[in-house]
Amino acid sequence: MTVAIPLTTDAFTPQAHRLIEAVRELVEISQGTITVEPELPVRDEPVPNGPEVRLLTASRQVLLDGEPLPLTRLEFDLLLFLAERPRRVFTRGQLLAGVWGYEHTGERTVDVHVRRLRLKLGNCHPVITTVYGVGYRLSDDARVVISAQE
User: Each residue of 73-84: b (16+ CB within 10 Å) or e?
Assistant: First the structure.
């Protein structure tokens, strides 16, 4: 069995020392071994490019590179839903349930709203990516910032 305990600093806290010692004792009782290895360096994330989309949740406004972008209630909710869950793919049914609150409408409703949202955001750097045969997700290259207020 392998237990990984990520430690974010070079210096161990007293709690981390106690935890490592307790694990070491348990491992030694069962005649196992324990090693402390430095954490592997974090891979640099790709820097998103394209326009910045800022969602102001308190006022339900969207700024595209600092300029107000008028969105309908459902377009805002759809963009916020995807932005709050990056790197996840959602089926049309999941989006209907999560954004619209029900699933008994035609799934093409999602397609229409995604198309309109893409047009408003501009097609140069897509913010919403289609995962063919599955659904939609927020693009890895999208620069989307969620702010409570501004």
Answer: ebbbbbbbebbe
Which residues of 27-122 form beta strands (DSSP E)? 52-56, 61-64, 67-68, 90-91
Angle at 59 between CA 107 and CA 63, to 5 degrees: 75
Name, in order, each residue with C-beta under 8 angstroms of 41's C-beta and a sequence gap of 6 or more: none
Least Cα distance to 92 among 69, 76, 108 occurs for 108
The CA distance from 65 to 40, in Å, is 36
The contacts of residue 24 (CB under 8 Å, 6+ apart) are 34
Reduced to 3 states (helix: H, G, I; strand: E, B; else coil), residue 35 is: coil
pLDDT, tens only, 55-88: 999 899 999 988 999 999 999 999 999 999 988 9
- In the numeric block, which tokens belong to residue 116? 């309109």
pTM: 0.66
Question: What are 132's two structure tokens?
Answer: 């063919």
> Measured at the alpha carbon of residue 69, what is the angle toward residues 65 and 75, in degrees to the nearest 5?
120
- Round to whole Å and give the CA distance between 108 and 112: 6
